[in-house]
Amino acid sequence: VCCRYLEVMRKLQKTYRMEPAGSQGVWGLDDFQFLPFIWGSSQFVDHPTLEPRHFLEERVVDEQQHEYMFLECIKFINEMKTGPFAEHSNQLWNISAVPSWSKVNQGLIRMYKAECLEKFPVIQHFKFGSLLSIQPGKP
């Protein structure tokens, strides 16, 4: 379901040249999505050959994008943005220097918590109740 949702959203973004609200530009992880990077990096934990530095290689992205969510995200960025990757996607370029996918995954989870879940303009749209409390320290 999530993969199909991403396909639809990317088609809309391309077709209508949609621009994200509140984008951090080069300093944001991605203009539209974050979770696919977390899920995608978890696919690579303990991968025998692909390391974080490999997602900068166009050949690797082209050959492996259909197997790995992270590389599919990178492919979409490469299609939508022009110029050197280090300039238009600085955060991701920095991630390519991390030595292991488990470190990448852990860092992305911390970043998601800080940049999304702990930001009131984002979290205010969540439905809170007995299962998901807005009170600190409660499940």
Biggest sheet overview: none
Distance between the termini: 26 Å
Range of helix content = 40-55%
Helix and strand content put the structural class at: mainly alpha
Strand portion, in percent?
Answer: under 5%
Please tell me the overall pLDDT: 88
Query: What is the radius of gyration computed over CA atoms, rounded to a whole number of angstroms?
Result: 16 Å
The fourth-level CATH homologous superfamily is: Phosphotyrosyl phosphate activator, C-terminal lid domain
Q: N-to-C SSE series?
A: HHHHHHHH
Globally, the shape reads: globular
Separate helix tally: 8
Overall tally of domains = 1
What is the total tally of β strands? 0
Catalytic activity: [protein]-peptidylproline (omega=180) = [protein]-peptidylproline (omega=0)
Main location: cytoplasm
GO molecular function, one term: peptidyl-prolyl cis-trans isomerase activity
InterPro entries: Phstyr_phstse_ac, PTPA_C_lid, PTPA_sf
Verbal overview:
The chain has helices at residues 2-15, 35-44, 58-64, 69-80, 85-88, 90-95, 101-117, 120-123. It is mostly helical and 139 residues long. The protein has a single domain (2-123), classed as Phosphotyrosyl phosphate activator, C-terminal lid domain (Four Helix Bundle (Hemerythrin (Met), subunit A)), CATH 1.20.120.1150. The model has no long low-confidence stretch (mean pLDDT 88). Keywords: Acetylation, ATP-binding, Cytoplasm, Isomerase, Magnesium, Metal-binding, Nucleotide-binding, Nucleus, Rotamase. It is an enzyme of class 5 (isomerase). Belongs to the PTPA-type PPIase family.
